[in-house]
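Structure in, sequence out. Go:
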């Protein structure tokens, strides 16, 4: 089940980058129909296009759409204006802090005994 969701999420993350591959796959699946109906050079006897002109149009349209989406996001981000009100902080030095004593003791020697008993709180 985890593998299924991991694969699904990975596909969703990769989906925007696979746009041109999806367009190319759709073209290959319907290339015969495109070359017979939509292609500009379909009436030519020596048609070497085979619908590739439509593929190029679709890819260009997809790239233009991607660029427009990127530019609109950049425009939105660049139009943000941050304002802050100036705050005056005044620091008064009352006294210089003294050195504090250490609140811990470092052990440099090995312990003499080891307690193997586990503490248990009293039952109420």
């Amino acid at each position: 089940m985890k593998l299924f969701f991991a694969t699904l999420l990975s596909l969703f993350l990769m989906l925007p980058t696979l746009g041109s591959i999806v367009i190319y796959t759709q073209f290959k699946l319907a290339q015969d129909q495109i070359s017979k109906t939509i292609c500009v050079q379909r009436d030519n006897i020596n048609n070497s296009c085979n619908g590739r002109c439509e593929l190029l149009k679709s890819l260009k349209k997809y790239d233009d759409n991607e660029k427009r989406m990127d530019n609109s996001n950049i425009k939105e981000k660049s139009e943000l204006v941050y304002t802050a009100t100036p705050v005056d902080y005044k620091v008064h030095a009352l006294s210089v802090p003294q050195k504090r004593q250490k609140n811990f003791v470092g052990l440099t020697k090995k312990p003499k005994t080891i307690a193997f008993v586990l503490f248990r709180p009293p039952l109420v």
